[in-house]
Amino acid sequence: MVQTVARAALPELGTYGFIDLKRGGGRMERFAFHTSDAGLAIEAVAPPVIWNTGLHPMLDVIRGGAGRRISPVDERERTRLLDAEGTASALHNQKLSSLIVVPIGQGDRVLGTLTVCYADGEREHEAGDLTLAEDLARVAAFAIENVELRHQAHARACELVEERARQEAGCRNFLSTLSHELRASLAAMLLWEKILRGASDETTRNRALDAIHQSTVAQSKMVEEITDLSRCVNGNLEIERSIVALDRLIEAAIQGATPGATDKGVALTAEPTGTLGSVRGDATRLRQALDILLSHALVSTGNGGRIRVAGVRGEARVQIIVADTGSGIAAARLPHVFAPFGATGEPGLQAPVGLGLGLAVVSRLVVLHGGTVTATSEGEGRGSTFTITLPLADAAVVPVFNPESVPSAPGLERGRRAPARTGRMLKGLRVLVVDDEPRVREAIALVLRDAGSKVTAAASAAEAFAALRDGRWDAIVSDIGMPEEDGYSLIRRVRGLPVEAGQGVGAVALTGCARPQDQSRAIEAGFNLHLTKPVEASDLIRAVATVAARPRAAASTPPRVANLGRS
Fold first, then answer.
1. Which of 143, 164, 450, 507 is the most exposed place for a label (fewest CB within 10 A)?
2. Adjacent-strand bridge partners of 372
3. What is the edge-to-edge ordering of all strands in the sheet holding 68-70?
4. Coil, helix or strand at residue 528
5. Full-prediction pTM beyond 0.85?
6. DSSP run (H or E) holding 438
7. Per-residue model confidence as pLDDT tens digits over 109-136
8. 345-362 pLDDT, tens per residue?
């Protein structure tokens, strides 16, 4: 760019010139050019110290945005210019007779100045020379901005390449971690299943059953983490807003995490917070976010460590703080701790902590509630602190949230909670179970029989429909995805029967299809409840009891009943 402008400027507009460009921090960069016996010469030279003197005409041009022609250059102008230029300037050796300074750029985008002069002591610039110099300056501005845009585009492209590489590395690590975690839980299940088959004493059998159950819970948590994050990212996560009392939410979350902390030898304490007030949000999702933070703290903190939960209320916002004395977070990892896959390290080289998606889910859940979540740590081995900040709800609104109605987050203490007292809740009920997977079908039938019901199992929709026509039923538990005919088709055919032939039978969809649209489709097809696999036995029993107790006359237009499983 400098060479192009210099060739156009000399010798038509002078014998000597320079381009001064503004840089960061008030610095200037100068390129001088002049004609010589060898042709055009261009060199980078020291810029003037104009910011300290304020005497240089360049300042007038940069500030005012208009070019100047000083012709002729009298002794006063020459003295002023040379004083501003400094003793190192090459202009001291020139016999200045005329000078033009024009801005490169316009308005707030003045990038510098173009200066051309006659340094032979004889020639002077005419009025039209200023216009020509301004045209050259516009060409220079366009060239400079074009170069800057190319540099910015190149830098952005490099950033995108690096980001893509980070994402691909994160995905590879995630898949490796997923494989490692699945293999670990499956290995435990297979080994304990082998032990269970040969166990002769009650203690070993109980240990085997507990180990298999915990491995199943771990796999369930993996699926739910992936599903929840996908819904958050795609905007499909449903938030059912109500007024949530934070004091009781925190109390319930701590109660849920206490058994795990006790088993691990970790002190879990809550600092007195007074009254934190209420927020407007989804109680289940807020509890899920808090449970994930507590679960993360438990995983990170070893025997003898401490976890502290506190709350701080401000005028318009409230903070929930979860601090631990555990393994901490490395400085390099801290900026990425809430990024999907950002928490996954090299699989197999550290203690399993899940898929590394939990904190990403927390971040997105909090954002959906108009809040923020931050993480701080003084480094590895020095603990970490997570702070959720949420906007307070109107203080005049009466809290309506009952913390005991909110289940704990998936996988936190799900395997340790006391079994629900479902007992013989289904005594005397006739239940039809439909699933094409034999092991699942048999397990569902055993659970429902143990609760007192009389169960008939069907391996297909056709077999189930035939059974329905042969007797009176209180409830149907049906899979959705089945060969030949799916569960949607089955329940539509059932709702088309006469009332006396079973039209009003209560129906539960039990399926691995867990998206919100899957729930809506199940309800619209005719199911009364939608449960996602895997499901707790107690939740399944309660669901069957609920649909069996519904008035049969209302079953032809089933209401949209809330999903009892995680969604």
1. 164
2. 389
3. 39-45, 28-36, 16-22, 112-118, 98-104, 68-70
4. coil
5. no
6. helix 438-450
7. 788 888 888 877 778 888 889 999 888 8
8. 443 333 334 556 788 889
